[in-house]
Amino acid sequence: MTGVPTAMLDAAAERFRLLSDPTRLRLLNELDLAAEIPVGEIAERAGVGLSNTSKHLHQLERAGLVGRRRVGTTILYHVADPVIPQLCEIVCASLRRRYATLAEQA
Questions:
Q1: Contact 88, 29 (CB under 8 A)
Q2: 62 and 11 in contact (C-beta within 8 Å)?
Q3: Which residues contact 26 (CB under 8 A, 6 or more apart)?
Q4: Bridge partners of 68?
Q5: For residue range 43-77, what is the model confidence (pLDDT) as tens digits?
Q6: CA angle (47 as vertex; 56, 31 as ends), nearest 5
Q7: What global pTM score does this model have?
Q8: Helices (H), the chain
Q9: What is the DSSP letter of 89?
């Protein structure tokens, strides 16, 4: 990370902080699987309470990771930053390799 401005590092740290919460990762995973989905359905699929889901989605939306659009009286949420699913896949692939290596060593 040579030459990255401090302000950008601070923003990256904030993004990683948001992504470090297992509940938010479950919500993002459900959004990625469904493409676009109402908050109640996200909560149900992720096994998270409705008010907790709304709180986390609001945080993710403020950071630009999640977007929403209104259709009549329904608000549909989606992953707004296309890098997020890629980042999650990179991390999960790394974990799969790590677990496979540990299993081979056992």
A1: yes
A2: no
A3: 46, 47, 48
A4: 77
A5: 999 999 999 999 999 999 999 999 999 999 999 99
A6: 55
A7: 0.85
A8: 6-19, 22-34, 39-46, 50-62, 83-105
A9: H
